[in-house]
Amino acid sequence: MTQTIAKKISLYDQDLNLWLETSIVQLKSGNLENLDIENLIEELEGLAGRDRRELRRRLATLLEYLLKRCYVKSEYDFAGWETTIDRTRFEIIGILNQSPSLKNYVNSDELFEEAFAFALRIVKKNQGYQNIDFPNKWEFSHNIDDILNIEFWDFM
C-alpha cells in the first residue's frame, strides 16, 4: 500500500493578502524567527522592479503623445493629447517623488532610446499618420526634468 504525503501549502501560496498582513504583524512585533524570509525577499524584489517597469511604460506613453503633439497637425486632437501628456507627467513625477533614486534610471540613455523606439513604432503604425514625417531620433533634450516640463511643440 502506497501512502501519499500531502505537500504543506504555505500561507503565501494560499492567501497573499493574509500572508502580507501576517508578515507586517511579525515585523512590527519583532517576531523574525517565524517570518517567511524567502517569500518576503521575492516580494521586495518584485516591488523594486515594479516602479522601473511603470516608469518605462509611462515614459514611452509620454514620448508617444509628445510625438503626436509636436508633429501631427490636428488642432482638433491637441487638447486630448495635452491632457494625456499632463496626466502622464503627473504620474512620472509622483513615482520619482516617492523614489528619487529612480531618476538615474529614467535618465539613462538606454531606457530613453528603448522608450522612444517603442513610441515611434506606435505612432508610425497609426493609419492616420502615414504621411507624417516623424524624426527617427528625438530632437529635443533627453533629460527627464526637461521632458516633464517643456512644451516642446512651442518650438516647432
> From N to C, what is the helix and strand string?
HHHHHHH
Identify low-pLDDT runs: none
Relative strand content: under 5%
Query: What's the total helix number?
Result: 7
Structural class: mainly alpha
Assembly status: single chain
Mean pLDDT: 92
Account of the 3D structure:
The chain has 156 residues and is an all-alpha fold. It has a domain at 51-155. Helices cover 67% and strands 0% of the residues. It contains seven helices and no strands. Helix 3 runs antiparallel to helix 4 and helix 3 packs across helix 6 (109-125). The longest helix has 35 residues, at 37-71. It is elongated, with a radius of gyration of 23 Å. It starts with 10 loop residues before the first helix and ends in a 7-residue tail after the last helix. The mean pLDDT is 92.
SSE layout:
Blueprint: H1 11-14, H2 16-29, H3 37-71, H4 75-98, H5 102-106, H6 109-125, H7 144-149
Helix pairs in contact: 3-4, 3-6
